[in-house]
Amino acid sequence: MLVTPKVLELHAPFTSMSNSTITIHNDTKKPMAFKVKTTAPKVYCVRPNASTIPPASSLDVSIIFQGLSTPPSLGDKCKDKLKIVSLPCDASLEAKDVSGKWSELEAAAGGATTDIKLKVSYVFDNEPIIEESTTPSAQQKDTQIKKKPANNNTLGDSTRIAIDDSYKKKQMN
């Protein structure tokens, strides 16, 4: 089995959904069944996530990135990976039955599966660099409030009050 591309590139903005395609090519003389696994199943939707490929044929697989709740920092490396596990199968196996019969297929193959790992990479080049202002605009304040987690318990209430009071004193001076 061959998979292209070797690295799945995710382009900014990383907080929105995007669709990528990988191509899986069966370079053997036997029909092959495959299953796509990911280290982050809530972040990626794979269609089809399991199927069959006739000999010397290819199949396009959609990888739908669901978007992150907060964007990665510039230069962050993505640790997500995809793994395509393949094994020989009977030509009569229907694509829709692969997931349900995967355990049987593995047993019949005697553990002779082929694993192809695909790394995921963040591409920041399309993201504009925005100068940060020392005083946030009203729109930025709204955005900051919306991006705050609902349950921010990293600071106790007394610490937050002390920080707020010291901030107000600096603003008055």
From TrEMBL:
This protein's GO cellular component annotations are: endoplasmic reticulum membrane; plasma membrane
| Keywords, sorted A to Z | Membrane, Transmembrane, Transmembrane helix
Where found in the cell?
Answer: Membrane
Keyword RNA-binding in record: no
> Annotated region Disordered: where?
133-173
> Among the record's GO biological process terms, what is one?
endoplasmic reticulum membrane organization
- Where is each MSP domain found? 1-123
**Compositional bias (Polar residues):** 133-142
Output the Gene Ontology terms for molecular function.
Answer: FFAT motif binding
UniProt lists the family membership as follows: Belongs to the VAMP-associated protein (VAP) (TC 9.B.17) family.
State the name under which the record lists this protein. Answer: Unnamed protein product
Please tell me the species this chain comes from.
Answer: Candida boidinii
